[in-house]
Design brief:
Layout: E1 2-4, H1 22-32, H2 54-60, H3 68-78, E2 79-84, E3 92-97, E4 100-105, E5 114-117, E6 123-127, E7 139-144, E8 151-152, H4 157-164, E9 171-175, H5 178-187, E10 189-194, E11 199-207, H6 215-221, H7 232-241, H8 246-250, E12 257-262, E13 280-282, E14 293-301, E15 308-319, E16 329-333, H9 338-346, E17 348-358
Parallel strand pairs: 3-16, 4-10, 13-15
Antiparallel strand pairs: 1-2, 2-17, 3-17, 4-9, 5-9, 6-7, 7-8, 10-11, 11-12, 13-16, 14-15, 14-17
Helix pairs in contact: 2-3
Amino acid sequence: MLDRVTWADVPGWKDDTTAEVLPALLASCAKLARKQDHEHLGVAPYGGTAADWRALCAAAAKVRAGDHRAARAMLERELVPYAASNNASDVAKLTGYYVAEIRASRTRRGRYQVPVYGRPPDLVSVDLTGFVDDARGRRVWGRLDKTSGDVVPYATRAEIRKGALDGKKLELLWCDDKVDLLFAEIQGSARVRLDDGRTVWLEFAGKNGQPYQGVGKLLREMGELQPGQGTMQGIRAWFEANPDRVDEIMDLNPSKVFFAVRKRPGARGSQGVFLTPRRSMAIDRAYIAHSTPIWVETDAPVPGRTGTAPWRHLLIAQDTGGGILGPLRGDIYWGDDADAAEIAGRMGGPGRFWLLLPRSIDVVGEALTPP
């Protein structure tokens, strides 16, 4: 449910360094500029059409860099805040992600034995928008069965590990650590330190379409991790203590991500824009449209310290993720440095959302219903 509120009802609104969100917003605006006025952003009615967002984008482009007061005033003129809830609850689940780092070689040798796969040529992706009126950004991944003509599930993680892609020459790189590669898949991108001293970047290029099962959750359900230990740090420690069970546990998550190698640094989200640390967020496009400004209230870890601190900031919906499902689910992008890795690895808890939408979109009382 989206309920209209006043700006005074948005906790911490006047305390944010608001102008910092403008680069992320303008990156999304550049994508919106390519759309026709009548095109929906994927979530009706609260995503609106491209035309609904034109005034915001034009106004944002005129705000001077670093002018937080002007940025906040502009947003208050152009947008209306809506408190988000689902089934009478306003509690959202917030996690974090970052650009992982792996060590790899372009050739298989020595310690570099773990393949990093590119997108298979027979992998297909079907955007359901052209087939279902309420598709809301949903996409199906699989392969085309030449006999039946149907799109069928692609090979699972376990099947791929056991050789389903052997001989197809899809190995982009060879890395030295299975756990590092798993985290790169979870994050959807990675910085790669090559054995020749160069640096390249891995970018999401597709997935097998199999259901995602979080390893931390699986280990907790098996009694291998206690509540609160399902962080990246906790998962890594468990794998290091149980090296003979790495394949067994990873295979319980049938989802597999395929990559492309890029030279340009940075992580690119599913909207096709480079993400802004602490200002970009992954959401479920079945409920929230790309480009949507979202005010987030939660608690976040503090680097180098135990515990968390209140965190209230404006972010832009620019990415998605296999485990980011539901109307009140968000994954905050923290960047690519050591602090980002620590924060993202430890983050996970409740929060609240406020969607900021153009005044031309009337969504009072609209439910955030599934497709």
